[in-house]
Amino acid sequence: MNNWVSAAAMAVALAGSGVVYASELTRPKAGKVEILRLKDVKPGMHGTAWTVFSGSEPEPVPIEIIGIWKNAIGPRQDVILAKMGGKAKETNVAAGMSGSPVYIEGKLAGAVALRLSVFSPDAICGITPIELMLEIQDFDTSRPADARTPDSIPSQRVASTEIPGELVARLVAAGAQGSLPQRVPAIVPIETPLVFSGFSEHTLGAFEPLFSQMGITAVQGGAGAGNLSAKPAPGWQHSLNPGEAVAGVLVSGDMSATGMGTVTYNDGKRVLAFGHQFFNLGPLDMPMAKSEILMVLGSQFQPTKFGNATEVVGALRQDRYSGIMGELGAEAPSIPVRVKVRSLGNGNAVVKEKDLNFNVFVQQKWTPFLMMLTLFNSLQQMNEYADEMTYRMAGNVELDGANPIHVSTMLAPGELPVPPPMVLAGWWGDKFNRLFLNPVATPKLKRVEVTVDMLPERRVATIENAWTPSTEVEAGTEIPLKIFLRPYRGERIERSLSMKIPAGMPKGEHRILFSDADTLNRMQHAAVLGNRYMDIPETVSLLNQERGNNQLYVSLIEGRPTYYADDKTLPALPASVLNVLQTERTASRALVGSPESAREQISIPFDQVVSGSFSLKITVK
Predict the structure, then answer these.
(1) Domain ends where: 426, 455, 484?
(2) Does residue 465 sit in helix, strand or coil?
(3) What percent of the chain has pLDDT over 90?
(4) Are 129 and 323 in contact (CB under 8 A)?
């Protein structure tokens, strides 16, 4: 009865301002619909938009056409300007209304997709003509050049400190700007609210500059997309009717991130929504879910819908300039991730443990960023977080058709311009960045697991010097060595070991190098940069070869060059072999060399971050 009264009241209101078609007050359903061409839209026409204000049932909103704004958003990209009434007059044109279908004379004219500036006293909206949205179904697999991805923001130089991970450097660059650009366009796409559930306010604040420059409104939510199955839920055939809320799922589970908008058109299999780009990624495979709206926050500055994704019912297939297209019943791949964070006390006893499970959207530039974002958020939410804390991290990545990746590192607070959790998250995201930016093949990740131990003090040790009783040695013999390290606020550490001088070691001067992991990894990293066509197995091999920074490495160095080819290390390479290799290489597969070679190598494990290097000269008699 209440719904009938509401519809009747709306009919009276609309009748007072123009012709009302009974079909426009009937909730739209999936199926073919008659189209109102842009050329037939005239100023003064009245129609109805459908959008959800609460729950999952769309409500009618009166629309009055103001006129056609020619080339408003691009060449031959006209926009229908209109004024919204009803509840929209109270809330203004809110984020999340993108895609709300507009019917005029019983025909579908387009989707509410833009709003007029900010602080507008009237709910003026821009409507994307339905002809532009229907073009999305005809697109191929071409990718737009201006996709909104975490690596596409303008970068600035960040001090002189080396920060692991390009994403961290870009994030700091974004945050370093005094203010965002002050230019306010006359008409802008309605923001797509990206609802983050299970994320702390501190996390969203840390990443806010990056979100802003990508045109994303980050909204801290409640339940979000908790434990959504990747498979479409039963009844998907009858879901996402025009006017209902739809969400693209980037993260689901104990943490979730979903982008929310409104369905414009549903032919029974394919769905069109938003009326503008999501991220303009072109072809994609992202879980598509139904949503329920909790409320619409009315505001002259930033009105926003708040809601939760409820059930996956298909997959988004296209993300284009004039809207998104999804396929009902389709399944999009996602990566299961498990993050375990443990707070350790004295004697490495576990004081507190947090076990998080979630799924991550698969895309070459978004996946590394989401891995970084979720790890940072996991670390920020531990009560034991402190400035002097040291992080010990180990991760495993299982791939389809390739060996697993095993990585580990330690991080202690230092003088970096960003907090240690951000640096650690950047290091983690960089591993996936190297995998997904592979130019030869796309990695297929089966499962990701990472464990981070939070240790109660700053654990760092710097290599100070080394000693041997005699610097003149004979080939084929063992020599005793001592290495001294200086820890943070502690007594000097001494380690004793022995190294065998190979029987075939040439006579003359050589040196023993005591070093951290970065010193030995540096040349291999240069080899990676010199090869633009590294395949997945080679990339995995290089990631597994990276030395851990919680070990001290002892190398016997001689003055013959080492060369790096792909993931292979070729020490003391004879000139004849080198000439053959060089003739087979190309500019895109460079052969990178170092003037010295390491003949023997010993690693000494520490439960500390080891840094620095020291050389001890010896003479082989």
Answers:
(1) 455
(2) strand
(3) 47
(4) no
Residue 15 has, within 13 A of its CA and on its CB side, a CA count of: 8
- Residue 578 amino acid letter: L
pTM beyond cutoff 0.70? yes
* Burial environment of residue 443 by CB neighbours within 10 A (0 to 12, 13 to 18, 19 or more): buried
**Full DSSP string of 588-611:** TB--EEES-EEEEEEEEE-SSEEE
Within 8 A by CB and 6+ apart from 484, the residues are 463, 464, 465, 466, 467, 492, 493, 494
Give the residue-averaged pLDDT of 563-580: 63
Let me know if residue 116 belongs to a domain: yes
pLDDT, residue 573, reads: 61
Q: How confident is the model at residue 514 (pLDDT cuts 50, 70, 90)?
A: very high
* Amino acid 159: pLDDT: 31
Q: Nearest CA to 345 among 386, 393, 396?
A: 386
Same domain, 492 and 609: yes
pLDDT single digits (tens) 73-129: 667 778 999 999 999 988 888 888 999 999 999 999 999 998 875 666 788 999 999
64-68, 157-161, 299-303, 450-454: segment of lowest average pLDDT = 157-161
Count of the separate structural domains present in the chain: 4
Contact 169, 155 (CB under 8 A): yes
135 and 85 Cβ atoms separated by less than 8 Å: no
Question: Is there a single domain that holds both residue 132 and residue 191?
Answer: no
Give pLDDT tens digits for 448-506: 999 999 998 889 999 999 999 999 999 999 999 999 999 998 899 999 999 999 988 88
Do 466 and 450 belong to one domain?
no
Non-local CB neighbours of 116 within 8 Å, separated by 6+ positions: 81, 93, 122, 124, 125, 126, 186, 187
On whether both 91 and 209 belong to a single domain, the answer is no
Task: Answer yes or no: are the C-beta atoms of 391 and 453 closer than 8 Å.
Answer: yes
Full domain range(s) for residue 41: 2-138
CA 342 to chain centroid, in Å, comes to: 24
Pair (327, 344) in one structural domain: no
With cut-offs at 50, 70 and 90, classify the pLDDT of residue 306: confident
Please, which residues have CB within 8 angstroms of residue 390's CB and are 6 or more apart in sequence? 410, 411, 412, 413, 454, 455, 457, 458, 459, 460, 608, 609
- Residue that finishes a domain, picked among 433, 455, 477: 455
Within this chain, do residues 230 and 178 fall inside the same structural domain, yes or no?
yes
User: Same domain for 469 and 611?
Assistant: yes
Q: Which two tokens stand for residue 512?
A: 């023993």
Q: Going by C-beta distance under 8 Å and a sequence separation of 6 or more, which residues neighbour residue 313? A: 232, 233, 236, 239, 240, 288, 289, 290, 328, 329
The CATH number that applies at residue 14 is 2.40.10.10
503, part of any domain? yes
Query: Does residue 184 or residue 372 have the better pLDDT?
Result: 372
Spatial contact of 260 and 192, defined as CB atoms under 8 Å apart: yes
pLDDT of residue 67: 93
- Domain co-membership, 476 together with 500: yes
Helix axes 517-530, 536-545, angle to 10 degrees: 170
